[in-house]
């Protein structure tokens, strides 16, 4: 029986791929023991036990950004946390450490290195976080979602998707969605979504332009999010949902999408071959605009900055696009060409490869340390982008 320590969390973008990988690993290795290392404050504190995995918590240690008392305490607190994780690795006889980024990841990576345990990393953003930039230097087992991600030893594996999305029967799910939400099977469907909390700019612009959009012959399934304030005008062909717990049905019903550009969203659009207009979240470090550049560069999506996604832009750009069915079909094919539906299996393959590397290293005197590249061995980097896309 092999023992795996999965580390990371905080947000759904970290926790969902972690759990999708754990589920697939459990299917392929039913006797495997899977522990999840996280914090008590992150989303993992609720989702991991709900999925039936053991959660081990460590203190949340934000990296200090300025010289203050917290910065002075940080080295000692980090060392204590690393020692705690090292104890877990030893006591539970962990064979492989797997991290997805987040507060729990960096201590796990450093503990794995100290204990000479194979380390595997997955990065779901084009712009890697600090923890994964550190971890990628400690191992050659690095999986990424985007080909343009610049991370040491990166291999494109896609995103471990939820099984209901990965294995969705599109025709059957589309029929179920049409029955559930009253969609017309004779009309193409535009899916509009900004995530579970919604996206104010997307919501307001689509709400203002809805009559013109419906005038193109499309119907609209609009997931507004739980904090949205847009009202339902009661127009035929316009279906508003505050929250959707059957996203696989919403995706299967979509012939086109308007959405944010989070990693999970892009992975699902590509996996199901859904062309899109992407409106990256304007707050933060611009990572969503970077996430979008591969799909946009391949011709499967159009990028528009949040501030520019206005009713005027809809009139000028979106409506002619929706009217051009040949272009929509071509964009769908290009999006599908970028998609990966077996990311969970690819990630589990990487975990097994790392585990077996430990056995090989143990059996071969003088071989490279577990998780490190053997001298002279070629790395497997993700292709570098031909050109950078413009950020917001």
UniProtKB/TrEMBL annotation:
Q: Which reaction does it catalyse?
A: di-trans,octa-cis-undecaprenyl diphospho-N-acetyl-alpha-D-muramoyl-L-alanyl-D-glutamyl-meso-2,6-diaminopimeloyl-D-alanyl-D-alanine + UDP-N-acetyl-alpha-D-glucosamine = di-trans,octa-cis-undecaprenyl diphospho-[N-acetyl-alpha-D-glucosaminyl-(1->4)]-N-acetyl-alpha-D-muramoyl-L-alanyl-D-glutamyl-meso-2,6-diaminopimeloyl-D-alanyl-D-alanine + UDP + H(+)
Q: Which residues form the signal peptide?
A: none
In residue numbers, the region (Disordered) covers 357-392
Q: What does the record give as its pathway?
A: Cell wall biogenesis; peptidoglycan biosynthesis
Q: Where is the Glycosyl transferase family 28 C-terminal domain?
A: 189-346
Query: Cellular component per GO?
Result: plasma membrane
Q: Which GO terms describe its biological process?
A: carbohydrate metabolic process; cell division; cell wall organization; peptidoglycan biosynthetic process; regulation of cell shape
- Which membrane topology term applies here? Peripheral membrane protein
Localization, UniProt: Cell membrane
Does Plastid show up as a keyword for this record? no
Q: Which family does it belong to?
A: Belongs to the glycosyltransferase 28 family. MurG subfamily.
| Functional summary from the UniProt entry | Cell wall formation. Catalyzes the transfer of a GlcNAc subunit on undecaprenyl-pyrophosphoryl-MurNAc-pentapeptide (lipid intermediate I) to form undecaprenyl-pyrophosphoryl-MurNAc-(pentapeptide)GlcNAc (lipid intermediate II).
Q: Which PANTHER family match?
A: GLYCOSYLTRANSFERASE, UDP-N-ACETYLGLUCOSAMINE--N-ACETYLMURAMYL-(PENTAPEPTIDE) PYROPHOSPHORYL-UNDECAPRENOL N-ACETYLGLUCOSAMINE TRANSFERASE 1
Question: What is the name of the protein in this document?
Answer: UDP-N-acetylglucosamine--N-acetylmuramyl-(pentapeptide) pyrophosphoryl-undecaprenol N-acetylglucosamine transferase
Organism per entry? Schumannella luteola
Gene that this polypeptide is encoded by: murG
């Amino acid at each position: 029986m092999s023992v795996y320590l999965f580390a990371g969390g905080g947000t759904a973008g970290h926790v969902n791929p972690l759990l999708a990988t754990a589920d697939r690993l459990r299917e392929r290795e039913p006797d495997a023991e899977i522990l999840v290392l996280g914090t008590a404050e992150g989303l993992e504190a609720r989702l991991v036990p709900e999925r039936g995995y053991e959660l081990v918590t460590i203190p949340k240690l934000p990296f200090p950004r300025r010289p203050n008392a917290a910065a002075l305490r940080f080295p000692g607190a980090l060392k204590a946390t690393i020692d705690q994780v090292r104890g877990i690795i030893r006591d539970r006889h962990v064979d492989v450490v797997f991290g997805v980024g987040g507060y729990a990841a960096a201590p796990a990576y450093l503990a794995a290195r100290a204990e000479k345990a194979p380390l595997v990393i997955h990065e779901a953003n084009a712009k890697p976080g600090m923890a994964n930039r550190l971890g990628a230097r400690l191992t050659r087992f690095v999986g990424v979602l985007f080909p343009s991600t610049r991370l040491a030893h990166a291999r494109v594996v896609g995103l471990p998707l939820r099984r209901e999305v990965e294995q969705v029967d599109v025709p059957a799910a589309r029929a179920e969605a049409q029955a559930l939400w009253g969609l017309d099977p004779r009309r193409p469907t535009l899916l509009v979504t900004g995530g579970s909390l919604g996206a104010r700019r997307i919501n307001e612009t689509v709400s203002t332009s809805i009559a013109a959009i419906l005038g193109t012959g499309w119907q609209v399934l609009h997931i507004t999010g739980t904090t949205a304030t847009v009202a339902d005008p009661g127009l035929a062909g316009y279906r508003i949902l505050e929250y959707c717990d059957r996203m696989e049905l919403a995706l299967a019903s979509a012939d086109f999408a308007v959405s944010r550009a989070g990693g999970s969203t892009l992975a699902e659009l590509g996996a199901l071959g859904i062309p899109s207009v992407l409106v990256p979240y304007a707050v933060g470090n611009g990572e969503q605009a970077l996430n979008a550049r591969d799909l946009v560069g391949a011709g499967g999506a159009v990028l528009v900055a949040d501030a520019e996604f206005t009713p005027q832009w809809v009139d000028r750009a979106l409506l002619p696009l929706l009217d051009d069915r040949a272009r929509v079909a071509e964009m769908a094919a290009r999006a599908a060409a970028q998609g990966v539906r077996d990311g969970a299996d690819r990630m589990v393959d990487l975990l097994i490869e790392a585990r077996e590397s430990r056995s090989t290293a143990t059996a071969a005197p003088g071989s490279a340390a577990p998780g490190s590249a053997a001298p002279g061995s070629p790395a497997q980097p993700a292709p570098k982008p031909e050109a950078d896309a413009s950020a917001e």
